[in-house]
Amino acid sequence: MIVGRSIVYVSCNPSILARDLAILTNAGYIVDRVQPNDIFPQTHHMECVVRIYRG
């Protein structure tokens, strides 16, 4: 487990998530894990939880 230099990012908008991850990876962060979650079943929404850390 990465402690200290990690961020857990929760997003409900995949295009904004992609934009922000591009910015963060260009700043030296590394995507460790991505987990999609269907928190609101019966809707078209899908949330993503992403763990990133500074390499």
Structural commentary:
It contains 1 helix and 3 strands. The chain is α+β, with helices and mostly antiparallel strands and 55 residues long. The chain has one domain. The chain has a 3-stranded antiparallel sheet, with helices on one face. The radius of gyration is 12 Å and the shape is elongated.
Structurally, the number of domains stands at 1
Strands ordered across the widest β-sheet: 1-3-2
User: What count of helical segments does DSSP give?
Assistant: 1
Question: What is the C-alpha radius of gyration, as a whole number of Å?
Answer: 12 Å
Distance between the termini: 14 Å
Name some characteristics of this structure.
55 residues; 24% helix; alpha+beta
Detail the topology: elements first, then pairings:
Layout: E1 6-11, H1 14-26, E2 29-37, E3 47-54
Antiparallel strand pairs: 1-3, 2-3
